[in-house]
TrEMBL record:
Cellular location(s): Membrane
InterPro entries, alphabetized: Cell_adhesion_signaling, Ig-like_dom, Ig-like_dom_sf, Ig-like_fold, Ig_sub, Ig_sub2, Ig_V-set
Identification of the protein by name: Ig-like domain-containing protein
GO CC annotations, alphabetized: cell-cell junction; plasma membrane
Database matches in Pfam families: Ig_3, V-set
SUPFAM superfamilies, per the entry: Immunoglobulin
Key word Cell membrane present: no
Domain Ig-like stretches: 8-101, 121-213, 221-305, 309-406
Record's signal peptide: 1-28
Amino acid sequence: MAARAPEPQVLLCLGALLARWVAAGLEAVVIGEVHENMTLPCGNISETRGLVTWYRNDSEPIFLLSSNSSRPPAKPRFSLVNASSLHIEALSLQDEGNYTCGEALNETRWFQVWLQVASGPYQVEVNISTTGVLPNGTLYTTRGSQVDFSCASSSRPPPMIEWWFQAPDSKTEPFGNNLTASCFTLLLMSQNLQGNYTCLAKNLLSGRRRSVTTELLVYAPPLSDLECWAEMLPRLFLLQLTCRWDGGYPDPNFLWTEEPGGVVVGTSKLGVEMLNRSQLSDGKKFKCVGSHIAGPESGASCVVQIRSPSLLSEPMKTCFVGGNVTLTCLVSGAYPSAKILWLRNLTQPEVVVQPSSHYVISQKGQSSTLTIQNCSQDLDEGYYVCRAENPVGVREVATWLSKKFSLEHRGIVGTIVSLLLLGLAIVSGLLLYYSPVFCWKLGNTIRGQDMGDVMVLVDEEEEAEEEENAAEEEEEEEKKRRRKPMRGRPHRACIAILVVVNFERKGGGGERYRNINDERESLIGCLLHAPYWDRARNPGMCSEGN
Ligand SMILES: *[C@@H]1O[C@H](CO)[C@@H](O)[C@H](O)[C@H]1NC(C)=O
Ligand SMILES: *[C@@H]1O[C@H](CO)[C@@H](O)[C@H](O)[C@H]1NC(C)=O
Ligand SMILES: *[C@@H]1O[C@H](CO)[C@@H](O)[C@H](O)[C@H]1NC(C)=O
Ligand SMILES: *[C@@H]1O[C@H](CO)[C@@H](O)[C@H](O)[C@H]1NC(C)=O
Ligand SMILES: *[C@@H]1O[C@H](CO)[C@@H](O)[C@H](O)[C@H]1NC(C)=O
Ligand SMILES: *[C@@H]1O[C@H](CO)[C@@H](O)[C@H](O)[C@H]1NC(C)=O
Ligand SMILES: *[C@@H]1O[C@H](CO)[C@@H](O)[C@H](O)[C@H]1NC(C)=O
Ligand SMILES: *[C@@H]1O[C@H](CO)[C@@H](O)[C@H](O)[C@H]1NC(C)=O
Ligand SMILES: *[C@@H]1O[C@H](CO)[C@@H](O)[C@H](O)[C@H]1NC(C)=O
Ligand SMILES: *[C@@H]1O[C@H](CO)[C@@H](O)[C@H](O)[C@H]1NC(C)=O
Ligand SMILES: *[C@@H]1O[C@H](CO)[C@@H](O)[C@H](O)[C@H]1NC(C)=O
Ligand SMILES: *[C@@H]1O[C@H](CO)[C@@H](O)[C@H](O)[C@H]1NC(C)=O
């Protein structure tokens, strides 16, 4: 067939008259399309000199029209152009056939024209069996599934159907080799089969073509498990909730809600939500639900529970002058992980301890240690505050660091002195039991001396009592008070404190005092810290700190 492979130029003039005739002797072939107008030339004579008469050759020639104006045309659809060519309006399929024109000169010359009428292709119907249709009409299927493609169109003569495929960012290529089948099946769809599928129906006679392009997406459910976590954004102290569900295409959707209650925190494709402190409280739970178009119907979910930090730290530590001491702060329960800071509260409130050769700070997980190297006699004593902070809450715990005299003062001498003082204390206690005035006198006597540690303790004790009895201000009043009611329990408290003072002065003399010292330190620590913790956010911390 001459029109089997239409030239591109011809394809460009789709819809125009496709009048192409191939000279074969005096014979021509003209191709027209239904509903179009068609002009059949009478031979290749440009200049007509004789009378032209047109016939239609069926079983016998039928007169159509003549250039003799006295003979009317057989049908009004027929007319003569340039006094020789036959013009047919609105072609129909019945017009297909052989036509003959005769030019009458001295002798009649005959020309034959074969008119072929093509129609279509009309509507191209594509059917792709897929998993589903997106709201915007795009088809999608899932990886590994089977997809059936079919394409149908009607034309005369019957159309040639071709499938073409275009992957993203690549050029269109015929599907398979010379694939003119209207149906085919793809097994095991994969990502590289995602793209635009085009069914092309071609009328080989007219060269007219019509195509339908369908975008087919190949979706894949996530391969991994849904993961979610909370983290603290440095500096801003915002809480960032993150949800991940990797390996799927396209990206899943994430919904973060508060649990229980289901108040929506946010929905996104990223799975990241930012929360400020006002939205947070200790123990609150957040749930992330991931949903994927190709994933399980119910999606996947996970829950995070945020917790403010809890702290464990020694309430009291001692450091030998010239020695090293390590303060430890253990953070537990914090989610997300807390930021741990050491603060110094000696002269200025809340000064952050910066790492240096003197202060070595190291953190392992949620445990931080502050090592003070080469303790100095005056500078290092005081409160050290460990602060743990996450977006949910802040906790602080203070450690009292007291200095001790150098190591030479320890040992046997220290022990002997300790025992002597212990004895003295017991005697004092017994005396006090019978003469409370002595207790006060002894206290004053000791205070008169330059004994820093004792002073600290007695002062604290006084403070505590002063708080209980706010009315007493003058020392005279205090004297009276101490003289009168101090019987029984208060006396013993006085003794206990003296004993403690004794150990405090000379403590750490040997291994066997270690446990006693620890207990004593804890006790004093609690006493000392009580006012602090009244002011602090977590009054229970002192007992926790033990
Ligand atoms: C065919 O010719 C008639 C009259 O000459 C005209 O009205 C009509 O628009 C033409 N149709 C086409 C499709 O060209
Ligand atoms: C007409 O066609 C004939 C036969 O193909 C050819 O010999 C002749 O030269 C043509 N005349 C013109 C004017 O093209
Ligand atoms: C068509 O009719 C003409 C005139 O009668 C005749 O010469 C010619 O052979 C016919 N052609 C066909 C194919 O029948
Ligand atoms: C034209 O047709 C008429 C009527 O059929 C006829 O009488 C006349 O001779 C014809 N003219 C020519 C030039 O053939
Ligand atoms: C009619 O003749 C004119 C001038 O010779 C030409 O330009 C035109 O194409 C012809 N029309 C047809 C339909 O052959
Ligand atoms: C027209 O004539 C050719 C031969 O010249 C023939 O092959 C063809 O079948 C004819 N067409 C019709 C519709 O009769
Ligand atoms: C037609 O006939 C006339 C006279 O009969 C003659 O002069 C003329 O040359 C002829 N034409 C052709 C084309 O044969
Ligand atoms: C339809 O939506 C999908 C997913 O959002 C997108 O990939 C595709 O390009 C869209 N198609 C059209 C025709 O907008
Ligand atoms: C079909 O393939 C053959 C060779 O593989 C080629 O010659 C021919 O042109 C192709 N046909 C089409 C319609 O692409
Ligand atoms: C399909 O074709 C449309 C229009 O050309 C284009 O926007 C889209 O990206 C193509 N889709 C793919 C998967 O190549
Ligand atoms: C204190 O620590 C430093 C560094 O680890 C070390 O060089 C020094 O000897 C230690 N001092 C004492 C008294 O242990
Ligand atoms: C820290 O200093 C402030 C202000 O001087 C004081 O109120 C607070 O009690 C101190 N805290 C500790 C643990 O010493």
